[in-house]
């Protein structure tokens, strides 16, 4: 919770210091200029076009390198299933989606397919043609068709990350490019972001040697960039964050706290064991439970419907404010 | 280095204690009976058949869970490229391969293809047929054909793992099944195995909370199971382990040490930055540098040739010993 009165300014200064030292400690983004160009191009092509709404869906876990020449790292578990699924429903609803995802996590339009290897779906005929195996023909054909339609229609841009450094650097770039969209922009922050990191400077240059007994590590907390996103990077965008806990007792409390502390418009609360069937949408007007049912086998279908409704309402209110203000 | 004289017995007892507590602390292997059956079936189908030699190729990094309901874990970086590539050359040479790999790491026969998503290789024609995009036609067709041939020919069994617990449990099962093969069995241990772990019992049940400042962790060293593999699990198998370092100064010294300490037949030494072009094959008769050249674009091609030669020699010597003994 934020400290009241006089302590707040001090807290803010301390926070700014931690943000600065995080970004200063980050290794430069590889091919950063190109990444920026691609993102800016995608948004400007969509702005004012058919898809006037753009959502940045973040997905998968970030890693924290423990060594500069990275052999070992701490990873946050996340299959990326939520983000990949949600991306499909956003595209279906006409949103342009920047899919900011962990390399190797689930991808939109290939969630039904066995994860192991796509080689299992195909066979080579005697005439050296490729044929989809009978058993997978339907899903594979639909997956390829829907994927092609999204990409060729300019509604899907995939941007990969691995480390917490890459993730936050790219998120800042995306937010900067989306700022001009005002309330038509949305952030759907489903990525599992590391809470702790090892500052690059203090990291071992070479591989940590295992010869001598137990290993002790001290990790610094990652500054919570959600407040920055809301206050500076893209203040008008509609922001949805996720809260995942394994302990249901503290889940809703923490979701409420995140809503207030970071100024989110929505926090989606989910418990690890039931997350594919049920989530709770927490806003400052209340809590709505969203569950799968006979007609909606994927909880994301109803969730995205509800969020789009809330986004539309938010856009209306913002436009009114602009007229009245 | 091993302690001399009287201390050795004590060391061994301490080691046995650490092994015991590692396996006792491990969560039970999911679907373990089925995994055992598949492995035993694969080996018995190949035993005395056309592929009388069986190699277990391990590939990719293992993870160390930090929480029982795993959200965070420490990961060892390894793309699994070496293991996937080597598997193809072993199959080509007529070995039956148990490919014990990290879920999501590189797979044999799809190493050339962009990692992102197989959906990019295909298009749907107007008649709803699937067609490989012109740009990838050659690689995709070859990949599917070679993969099918390996699987249908019974020369490739893929077994996935994620955590260090799963990896070592399955490795023990494979070794037990391969023991009867004697010197015809080979272990090619290219996986990047964690050096440290958090004992399951002492692990946080719920997600570690990030509220309070820095995070301190203490990890226990993973007992080196290589000695067990050599002495107990499959004492006659030909064993190759890998040593990866970022610091070339200590690489060869450590490779030599591993050779003696764990009784490996071969240690393949590689440096992180040059590992795709050059490795050093270390045995007790000397060191051989293996490098890519015009005819051999992949260092694994020459490496596997050399190792198979050494394996053949080892089989001959073992048979002589058996006759003379």
UniProtKB/TrEMBL annotation, chains A, B:
GO terms for molecular function: phosphopantothenate--cysteine ligase activity. Pfam families: DFP. Pathway: Cofactor biosynthesis; coenzyme A biosynthesis; CoA from (R)-pantothenate: step 2/5. SUPFAM superfamilies: CoaB-like. InterPro entries: CoaB-like_sf (IPR035929), DNA/pantothenate-metab_flavo_C (IPR007085). One of its GO terms (biological process) is coenzyme A biosynthetic process. The keyword Nuclease does not apply. Keywords: Coenzyme A biosynthesis. Residues 181-300 form the DNA/pantothenate metabolism flavoprotein C-terminal domain. The keyword Cytoplasm does not apply. Belongs to the PPC synthetase family. PANTHER family: CORNICHON-RELATED (PTHR12290). This is DNA/pantothenate metabolism flavoprotein C-terminal domain-containing protein.
